[in-house]
Amino acid sequence: MSFQLLVACAATNSDAKHLQELSDKVTSWPEFFNLAHQHGVLPLVYQTLKSHRINIPQPAIAMLTQLHSQHVMHHMQMVAELERLTLCFREAGIELTVIKGPVLSFMAYGDFISRQYVDLDFLVHEPDLFRAAQLLEEQGYNAHKPIKFLKNPALLRAGKDASFYNTDNGIKIELHWRLFEERLVQSLKDEQLYSMQQLSINNKQINTLQNESLILYLAMHGSKHFWERLEWVVDIDRLIHNVDVNWEKIWDLACNLHVKIMLLLGLKMANHYFATPLPEMLEQEINTNTQIASLIKTLEINMLKTIQIQSGDIIGHIQRIGSLTDTRLDAWHYVIKLAFSLKTADIYIMNLPKLLHFFYYFVRPLRLLFSVLTGKSHHEH
Amino acid sequence: MNKLPYHIPNTILLQKIDGESILLDSNSNQFFALNPIGEQIWELLTQSEEPAAILETLQQLYDAPQEVLKNDISTFLNVLVDRGLLIKES
């Protein structure tokens, strides 16, 4: 019942009577707010309950108001920091694309506070990566791993991003040099997603992905994480309502990248929960695809149970990713890449010169063996 | 046309929430809440290029003597300047 209320709060067309009926059935508001936070829709819960004047117990109102105030203040700090850092990158001559976070909130929801986000995601061209990392360090951000690794070609092939954290302002930044690991898409050319547009936000120019690339990226990102969070579905719904989309362009892009299933699944999830209008050409593809219908059922159950994907469940992970691939060949490609390609954890053990990179392949089995013996998960998403 | 002798520093971020305007000064990391009249003056500051326009608009909205309004606006602007939320052109 709580999940139904989450969906109703995240929908744009819920009526007060329905919301009140669902709210009356909530047995624990702190648990409900926790669930809303886990699903990334706490701001929408606040806004919807407030705007529809839903009658909920006074202590719950006080708790929600406090949670929301904290959320707004932290998001304002993040937006201010985004603006400051964007300027720093521009002055340093580093082309920066901002993905997700406040920019997605602005594009899909029309403001910075309706979407829940915990970090800022920056995408830079690989040749600029090390300079970008140095710049973040100069601006008070501590790298999670030493930035010297960002010059290591083995790491650049195996990974996709590096984390930074500023202890003064509590803001985390993910610095991406690509959007997905090589193994996720067969064509390996997710550069095709990197077509950019410039938005004017708060009178400041910020680069972000084009609408089509962004929708496809969100569908791929949500699929990769098996749509664990309702927020990812809402993002697609709101974005489709708020931006102009060239559907033929998206479809061509999805075909080129071999991610048709992920795109269709993302669209169907939005349509399933929020009745998002879909273009006729893709609706037909969705309706004739048995894989999508079966996936939706599984994902719906997962979301209801709020199952968190176990990071150590490697077989389950392969099966799930396999179900999201366009062809059997794509699935095998993923499995082979997963089994034989290096992982960032192999490389972060030591920063070897290129001549000695073969040594990483000896490190990997030892690291996996150590993980198994110590019972620690070795799988990385 | 006389330009306003003030400008809003680019370190100030405004967010409206529940009918209230919140300002963040990202330099000092301090938050400020504006009351409805303060919010109107702030909006006019971002839109208007003529000092007289602020007074004129507020006169239309509030039934108060011109001198009182003038003083109130001046006091409010001085508070903003003192707190670093507004910069007075030299």
As residue ranges, the low-confidence spans of chain A are: none
Coarse shape of chain A: globular
Please trace the helix and strand order of chain A, writing H or E for each element: HHHHHEHEHEHEEEEHHHHHHHHHH
User: How do the strands line up in the largest sheet of chain A?
Assistant: 1-2-5-4-3
Strand content of chain A: 5-15%
Q: Could you give the distance between the termini of chain A?
A: 31 Å
Provide an overview of this structure.
The complex is a heterodimer of chains A (381) and B (90). Chain A contains 18 helices and seven strands. Chain A is an alpha+beta fold and 381 residues long. The relative contact order of chain A is 0.09. By secondary structure, chain B is of the alpha+beta class. In chain B, the strands form two sheets. In chain B, strands 2-3-4 form a three-stranded antiparallel sheet. In chain B, strand 3 and strand 4 (30-34) form a beta hairpin. Classes of the chains: A alpha+beta (381), B alpha+beta (90). The A-B interface holds A 50, 72-73, 76-77, 79-81, 83-84, 111-113, 169, 202, 204 and B 10-11, 13, 15, 17-18, 22, 24, 26, 29, 31.
How would you sum up this structure in a few lines?
The complex is a heterodimer of chains A (381) and B (90). Chain A is of the alpha+beta class.
